[in-house]
Amino acid sequence: MSKCEQCIVREFNSLKALTKEELIRVTGCKTSKIVKKGEVLFDEGEYINGIFCVKDGVCKVSKMSDNGRDQIIHLIKKGDIIGERSLINNEASNLKAIAVNDMEVCFIPKEEILRDLENNASFSMDILKKMANSLKEADDVIVDMAQKTVKQRLAATLLLLDAKFDKNENGSMNISLSREDIANIIGTATESAIRLLSEFKKKKLIDLKGKEIFINDIKALRELSEGF
Amino acid sequence: MSKCEQCIVREFNSLKALTKEELIRVTGCKTSKIVKKGEVLFDEGEYINGIFCVKDGVCKVSKMSDNGRDQIIHLIKKGDIIGERSLINNEASNLKAIAVNDMEVCFIPKEEILRDLENNASFSMDILKKMANSLKEADDVIVDMAQKTVKQRLAATLLLLDAKFDKNENGSMNISLSREDIANIIGTATESAIRLLSEFKKKKLIDLKGKEIFINDIKALRELSEGF
DNA sequence: CGATTGCTTGACCCCCATCAATCCTCGTGG
DNA sequence: CCACGAGGATTGATGGGGGTCAAGCAATCG
Questions:
Q1: In what residue span(s) does the Cyclic nucleotide-binding domain sit (chains A, B) (predicted)?
Q2: B125 touches chain A (CB under 8 A)
């Protein structure tokens, strides 16, 4: 089993605040796991009893709305940690996580993390900072959802994806979301998202080749998302 | 100056986790303040440099969207703490807070809180829990904003206000929001909110007497908010 | 190579944003 | 005490955004 002390991924998240001794203990109690594309990492209502550290791959984190449609709230990628919130307030997860492509994750059981939170102020402070930042981002999303048109939200989402994920060799975004996924991020019907995507393509803001998306005109997209 | 050790309000928020000695120090460095209805407690972009503990009154916390409308994201009331997020990630506030009625608040400077966060694991754990819970609530708001109609959101907001605030003697909700405020909570135009309110009144779900709002039929409102 | 799933486009219609006009309410000054 | 002005509340009219249903097309898979 690979050792946390030597894991590069750790450097990107709060686990970097752990001491060497703590990391060795984590190595001893963690489990690794492969999650195939489309598989459920955890579901709404499930007790996770620990946190996941994503070594590779991407998953979509969503919540079912009363009307029966999934709203995607987060995209989690390599280096991110997920599950810490349910762990902290000791509740079942309010969210569902599904792998967007094949993932490799490590699972660290609750007790170990709670112990570290108690004893390592620097670790808990880092978690605090991460959560404060997530809250700030959530504020932005709420405002966008409440005030922006679907077109603006699509433009903003494309920019966000462009910033968050790497490019393939040909310049397309290295994340394979279905049209439905995209619609579920911006909170609209799949057909609406499709229509707007092809409108953007017609205006040369983006290019579409099957599932691949190329961002051509960041500036225009930014103006669109801000409502010009 | 009143003493934090004897302040009842503290029992409702994370400050209850502080030790007696810490509370005495807080008493020594805190300042009290009266904020009149309509006055700004803090503005977007401002460095707060501490936290506010609300002894009395209510304030609306909002964020300006690109299109120039304020979106109200939180309503903060007696017993709540506000400002901890900007303090934790050491940034200017991304939100604006305006008093909805006359308020009485205590201000505790940053250094004191940071010191307590470092030294009192139970305090920082309590803050963590509060933030984890806020994130969960934010998820719900995002889903509602993205997926629900304006009518559903108004119903949900009325229920939320009903649950969060006390009643007056005559049974109306003890919070005086303008129609514009209500519209800015649910993220719609003022006229739309007004129209829906009078529709609800016609259907006997609520009653309106000037600014006062009476909730008549919780069950019907709940069904409405869930989309029946 | 069917068959299932996802993508795309068209048609239709309702919700809601916007503009405009009026009414109401309340605080201020004459 | 009243007049008046300003801001909020209300109602009407209108047009466009976007949700929904339906049908045709492409692609992926057993």
A1: 14-134
A2: yes
